[in-house]
Write a structure and sequence with these properties.
Strand order of the largest sheet: 1-4
Number of strands: 4
Strand content: under 5%
Low-confidence stretches: none
Number of helices: 19
Shape: globular
Mean pLDDT: 85
Order of helices and strands: HHHHEHHHHEEHHHHEHHHHHHH
Structural class: mainly alpha
Radius of gyration: 21 Å
């Protein structure tokens, strides 16, 4: 058995061992277990059942990460993506008026499109040809939107008739604990403490429980039923414009997210060649698409590769065996629903704020020497959080990019795929 594992994952070739891969898995898992808490908290705002979403989140993470480990054989973990879950809840359901069941159907449709694009090689083409500034601007904008949600959840930011938003109730216990949480997560990350996020969440929960701010619902139980979200996809809005653009925006967000994360992690792993290409690309991209399909069926938002996988790579993880171990660790979380459901917002909000900052840091890669690059990127980034509309921000960014390149005589830098995307957005803005 051990020899078969060694041969399949080529442990000797990669100069690693089963023990090292297990330690790497624990490192990655400990840095991203917050998703089983945060994702149900966000999606439950749409009316989805917390326990069902938690079970769906865990099962989807376990399934998708296992596929990554066995198929692409990379030590990369996947789960419901941060940022895109906020978009699912606050833009698709709250703003457009689609039900969460219809939003799940849009996720399912997006997964079919992604798999098709992957098979045809078009997804790789979009990844290569879409303007870098638009890609990083989109992810940064989603990050800022996520941080805004975290600030609002504990009333650090409140609405204002004149300025739209203003500083909120800084003297409330919840707000002060959230600020402490931001300081703790940031400081622990600075010192390289890998489970910084989950450690801070647990500490804030403990403080809240000690002072009667957090109820005790128990620690472990049988997994929550998934019946409230399982097979709840609603395709009745399939032919509507809002369903089409919800699907399209899911497709592009997943593509952008996969691009930056995969390139970053594979570069850390050392498998990229000089042309920034790496083996098993189609297999790696297949994982988030199938994970999104599985998530839609079970009842959660689209999956994404997690940058936290870098913790496991840094700990020595080099093969898909790390991902297999992570998958098994996720399954063990199925029995912690009572404890997870008792974690309060003031323990979750700091996570959203810091993760938003981590997502926004990629904006530094914008070409600040070319105004036709950084202005479209900035338009994309700033529009998304101000409007809670990711496709709207993406659309304005693409129009700005293509328009400025055209007017400055840089038509040769506009790939046909960018023309097509821009035209689609112009039609949307004019007709919808």
């Amino acid at each position: 058995m051990l020899q078969a594992i060694n041969r399949y994952f080529e442990l000797d070739k990669h100069n690693t061992s089963i023990q090292t891969e297990l330690i790497a898995a624990l490192s990655t898992w400990s840095t991203m277990t917050y998703i089983i808490i945060v994702n149900p908290r966000i999606l439950s705002k749409t009316g989805m059942d917390f326990g069902s979403v938690m079970t769906a989140t865990i099962l989807t993470a376990a399934f998708t990460t296992l596929v990554m480990g066995l198929l692409a054989r990379y030590p990369i973990a996947l789960a419901s993506g941060m940022g895109i879950n906020g978009y699912f809840a606050f833009s698709i359901v709250t703003t457009t008026g689609l039900t969460w069941q219809a939003a799940l159907a849009a996720c399912s449709t997006a997964s079919v499109i992604l798999i098709t694009l992957n098979v045809l090689g078009i997804r790789q083409l979009i990844m290569e040809k879409l303007p870098k500034g638009i890609r990083v601007g989109t992810i940064a904008g989603i990050g800022i939107m996520l941080s805004f949600i975290g600030l609002r959840d504990v009333n650090l930011i409140v609405t204002h008739d004149t300025t739209l938003v203003t500083i909120g109730y800084m003297d409330s216990p919840e707000a002060m604990l959230a600020i402490i949480g931001i300081l703790l997560i940031t400081s622990l990350m600075y010192f390289g403490v890998q489970p910084a996020i989950i450690a801070t969440v647990l500490l804030l929960w403990s403080f809240g429980f000690a002072f009667g701010m957090t109820p005790w619902r128990g620690f472990a139980s049988l997994p929550p039923t998934i019946s409230h979200t399982l097979f709840q996809l609603d395709f009745s809005e399939f032919w509507t414009v809002k369903f089409f653009y919800a699907t399209l925006s899911f497709v592009f967000i997943i593509i952008f997210d996969a691009t930056g994360t995969l390139l970053s992690l594979t570069e850390q792993l050392g498998v990229l060649d000089q042309s920034k290409k790496f083996p098993c690309l189609k297999k790696a991209l297949f994982c988030d698409a199938t994970g999104t399909a599985m998530g839609a069926i079970l009842g959660t938002s689209p999956t994404s590769n997690y940058l936290e996988s870098g913790a496991g790579i840094a700990a020595g993880g080099k093969t898909g065996l790390t991902s297999v171990f992570i998958s098994l660790l996720f399954l063990s979380c199925l029995f912690l629903a009572p404890f997870v459901s008792s974690i309060p917002l003031f323990a979750i909000s700091p996570v959203l704020i810091v993760i938003g900052a981590l997502m926004a840091r990629g904006f530094r890669h914008v070409d600040w020497n070319d105004i036709t690059e950084y202005v479209p990127a900035f338009v994309t980034m700033i529009t998304i959080p101000l409007t809670f509309n990711i496709p709207g921000g993406l659309g304005l960014g693409m129009i700005t990019y293509v328009g400025t390149k055209f007017l400055t005589g840089n038509i040769d830098k506009i790939h046909w795929i960018n023309w097509l995307i821009t035209i689609l957005f112009v039609v949307k803005f004019l007709l919808v």
